[in-house]
Every structure is written in C-alpha cells, then in structure tokens.
Model the fold of this input.
Amino acid sequence: EVQLLESGGGLVQPGGGSLRLSCAASGFTFSSYAMSWVRQAPGKGLEWVSTISDSGGSTYDADSVKGRFIISRDNSKDTLYLQIKSLRAEDTAVYYCAKMGQYSSGWEFDNWGQGTLVTVSS
Amino acid sequence: QSALTQPASVSGSPGQSITISCTGTSSDVGGYNLVSWYQQHPGKAPKFMIYEVNKRPSGVSNRFSGSKSGDTASLTISGLQAEDEADYYCCSYAGSSSLVFGGGTKLTVL
Done:
C-alpha cells in the first residue's frame, strides 16, 4: 500500500526565512516515480506547485512559485522535500505530497498524502 | 497558467446522473488527452478518479466516466449515491511540463 506522510508545516512569520516540508514515502519503489507538491489554500481549490522527475534531475514549477520554492528528493531515504523561501500570506495552505502516475503519460496524481498545513501570519 | 473553468456547484438526486464540465483552451484541455479528475471529501486528501480523459484506475467505480470535446472535458457520475457528495477537480497537462487545475465543483446529492 502506498503511503505518503508529510511533515514540517507550522506557523511562520511573513518574509521570515524559509521552511522545509518533507514527505516520507513507502509501499512503492520511490526512485521509479516522479513526485509532486500540490497546495490548497483554506476554502479554496487545488493548485499544482512543483514536480520532480524520478531521478531528481529535472524539476518543474508553477509560475506562481518560481524562484521561491525548491523541490528536491533523496532517493536513498525515500523522501521528497519542498523548500519555501520568503514566505508570504498567500502561501498559507495545506501542502500535499503526491505520487505521479504509473500510466503511459505519468501526468496525473495517483496517490496523495494527508497534507501538512503551513500558516504564514504575524 | 489560468485555472480551468468548472461550475461552482451541481446537484442531483440519488440514482440520477450528473455531469461536471471543465473548460480550458487549446493550450491545455484541447491540446492534450491528459485530463484527470479528483474527488475530495471535506477535510480529506483528494482521490484519483479518472486519467487520460476517460480511463479509470483500478478500484474506481464504473459509475464514474470521463470524456472530452474540444476544449471542454466532462466527468459524468451515474446512479448518484449519497457518498458521491464531495468536491470534484479536473486537472490538465498544459505544456512545458506544467499542470493546471480547475477551480473545483461542489456536488450535492439531494
């Protein structure tokens, strides 16, 4: 059974340094799949944030987060990361870790974690 | 990347069928057969329901089906059940290794 467990969320002040989210994966061969982060602001819809290839050699980001968010992975630890810099109030959201699909295109999210809440507020 | 357009809400009675639309452009929905759909119950993580426009992953009820015409994709749920009441999101590949979601649709089972 695929399991994705996010951690690292919490209350952060605007502009205050950076935050690193983690996602521990189990139940599948982590190094064989691309992985993504998707966020959801309170009461709002889903927003794709970033995707990283299976090897970690390629990363892709939404325009809204380019330059501030860095997605990375450690295949030796079966763990996905998201570093968020220069936090803004609009970054307040539940951040979900998602496994990309095993199907022909791979551009779908076939398993999701339970999410970790990031709150940016003074 | 502008969000795909979905109706804010739809409703139906048990046993009926409903359809949720998802409208994009030729740069996303219309340009690729890479539309997926997700179901989200309140306070829960999204669940994967449909991929590549009309394919169902194993374990998803065949009451759920997808289609596409031009720049608009659709999710149809037949034989509505109370447990289908949830938010539904479409998502499309948008080129240049990017993805875009719809704004979400709240389904109410009357």
Q: What stands out?
A: Chain B has a mean pLDDT of 97. The longest strand of chain B covers residues 86-93. Chain B has no helices and nine strands. The interface with chain A takes residues 1, 3, 34, 36, 38, 40, 45-48, 51-52, 55, 57, 89, 91, 93, 96-104 of chain B (CB under 8 Å).
